[in-house]
Amino acid sequence: MDDESSKPATSTEKAVEMRERRRKAGVVQMNFFVREEDKPAIVKAMRDYTDLAWLALYDAGAVLHGANEARAADIRTRLGLAPPAAVRPSETTKK
Q1: 15 lies in some domain
Q2: Which of 54, 84, 80 minimizes the C-alpha distance to 69?
């Protein structure tokens, strides 16, 4: 009964395992200290930034693959990357 799995893990092994679990979950480590009262605002800003990053990725994919240009323009506007595209009269009227 004295096999390898029954031995307690060392602190280094535990740290490596925890890092691996966090990496797989998409959690990143940030090395800075903040005041306790600032944490909610920082977490909100980080979540907002993540949303913007996903929008930017979607925008890049939409433009690269010729997807819905109106959606791509909307995303660019929301990100503040470019002003809304002007609609040309030829696009609004169907012949």
Answers
A1: no
A2: 84
Q: In the numeric block, which tokens belong to residue 19?
A: 């890092």
Helices (H), ranges, 6-68: 11-25, 39-64
- Mark 76-85 as b/e (b = at least 16 C-beta within 10 Å): beeeeeeeee
Query: Considering the domain boundaries, does residue 20 fall inside one?
Result: no
Q: Helices H, strands E: what count in the chain?
A: 4, 0
Q: What is the pTM of this model?
A: 0.27
Q: Into how many domains does the chain fold?
A: 1
Domain of 54, in residue numbers:
34-92
CA 23 to chain centre: 14
pLDDT single digits (tens) 59-95: 666 555 555 667 667 766 766 665 554 545 555 555 5
